[in-house]
User: What shape does this take?
Amino acid sequence: MPPSYRPHDGANKNQPHVLNMKKTTSYILFTALLFISCTGHPDINPEYKLDTSKPISSRIVIFVSPTSDEIKKMKAETKDLEGFYAAADDYMFYKAEATNFLKSKKTPYKLTQEKKIKFIVRKKVIEMDYSKSERDWFVLIYNGKDKPTKTYAIDIDEHEALLKQLTEPTSIPTPLPH
Assistant: This one.
């Protein structure tokens, strides 16, 4: 019997059929993970889904990601599908790191796929259009009064002063009378 068809006895892990099975299994798991991570947020947990039906007025961090249709278009236009999946996987990792960082700071955040978002800026409603953004995955930090600051999940901790504004009380407590 040729060596590649012999049953595995556990003694030699360098047998070709074992390596091929491991490679195939790894490929299937990797592909499934990326498929799940690259399908957008069709079922965003309602607790974390941003309500874009009205202007945003509260201090918040918003993770913006592409829709399923936008992802399909990106895949069709790319010449390096493996690179696309690697970038999407990197985004998912850094988004998880960023959300854990925000949770540790008790900073509110939401998720959306909407690219046109209305904010209250200096007591006026303005619509910010991110549909022509250079990147498809990004983060907005909104302090409740100024235009949102656009950044990326990997850089979230570089905005500590701005993030601190999101968790500080909105007014200074009135001193108690003596």
Observations:
- Residues 60-167 form one domain.
- The chain has a mean pLDDT of 78.
- The beta strands are 60-64, 109-112, 116-121, 124-129, 138-142, 149-151.
- The first strand starts at residue 60 and ends at 64.
